[in-house]
Amino acid sequence: MDQFIVKPLFGGDTIAWYTPTNVTLWMLLAILAVAALLVLGTSRRAIIPTRTQSIAEMAYGFVYKMVEDVTGKDGIKYFPYIMTLFMFIVFANFLGLIPMAFTTTSHIAVTAVLGFGVFIAVTILGFVKNGTGFLSLFWVESAPLPLRPVLALIELISYFVRPVSHSIRLAGNMMAGHAVLKVFAGFAQVAAIAPIAILGVVAIYGLEVLVAFIQAYVFTILTCVYLKDALHPHH
Amino acid sequence: MATETQDAADAAGQGAEAGGAGMPQLDFSTFPNQIFWLLVTLVVIYLILSRVALPRIAAVLAERQGTITNDLAKAEELKAQAVEAEEAYNKALADARAEAQTIAQQTRAEIQAQLDDAMAKADAEIAAKSAESEKAIAEIRASAMENVQDVAKDVAKDIVAAMGGDADARSINAAVTARMKG
To answer: Average pLDDT in the A169-189 region?
Structure first.
């Protein structure tokens, strides 16, 4: 579990809120990677894109289409925020897969800020956009009247569980993947099962590359779904 | 084999030890630090995206879309032009063919007329020539007749003289002329 320990970058033991730590380093690398792809990659503004520009455009189109499909036309103005979330998570996940790297998104502190940030923003937005009409999200009009209070309670609970599941899903997936890699790597020290263990490391690593992208995608699309609920609370 | 098992146990033991020391994720003393740097990172990424990257990519995509639309429109226009040009070409071809037809007709008629003319002229010439020739032949024949008469008279006179007769010119001439006519 050493790989998850937060350490100060320049020695010392105390970690104040401003201390530059390995968290700082790997988040900075994520910023640089995002900038390299989306700013340097598109610096030529070519009509016929280079490979890097193609990837940048694909990332843009991927998230843009997701926002448009899920939230509709009026969700487009929140596209930059959702793109920020997606780019940060996807690069934090991928950078975390570099050997000896620190995975910022494997920490519940980070994903909880993301998850509760989305939750609070979406809830405020829902009330600002719809007033008390936002509460109709919990009052299922299509259900029979006697069932509605029960459903309202269930909906309410599920609504407040959203940020928890939202953040724990991401941190849990990243942490579990890295922990499984570590376990296989530990078995690789034993000569008798080393070949199988190394094969396992390779296979799990491939799976983790997939998970790194899929979790970023899942986080982003759930954010879009929550945003849609805030913009159109009626079922 | 024994040492390997020992190693495996050690490895497992290390994992358990680290796990037992508590998950770093639940070390709340590092939370303010992580949250602070996360917020800084998110703000920086947001600024980079909203100020530079997203407008630029949107502009590039719009420009590409525009270029494609323009190219398609241009291609459509060129196609229409090509169709027009083909029509004009076909029309010109038909016109030229019709003109060639008329010219050929005219030329044929002209040549026919010239030919008829020349034929008529040649016929007339031939008729004149043959009349002339006939006349010449008649003349030659007449003169030949005369010569024959002269020669016959001379021969008759000589024959009469040779036979001892006295030939007077007038009676011989009369006799020869009578014979020749007979």
So the answer is: 93
